[in-house]
Amino acid sequence: MSVFESTVQINQPVEPVYNFLADMNNHGRLMPDNIINWQSNAEEASFEIQNITKLSLKISSRVPNFEITIIPAEKPPFDMELKWKLEADGNTTQATFIITASLSMMMKMLASSQLQKLTENETQRLTEVFS
């Protein structure tokens, strides 16, 4: 399993950060520019990574103000799990976005840098939403 993660501090209490992330409609605002055809509801989202693949994701579990787990809604090119972990510290929140993926050696060479960029992009955009 390959693990990619990025952590940021957000100058907001944990509850509004959790509420934002608990709704898949909001995740479109965190995506990089090469994501097209975003469609979502509170539980699921589908989109295309331009010139690469289509993906459908759904929230599989929520632990209020602590964790949100997202899994593929349809068979992806490789097994993966996306997880947001939140840690409250007074009026600030530490948000960690983790992608765990089962990548073959070839996929690891092709996708690792893109998956790491994705984690960093999403956490950076999350800070922008709350700034």
From TrEMBL:
InterPro entries: START-like_dom_sf. It comes from the Bacteria. This is SRPBCC family protein.
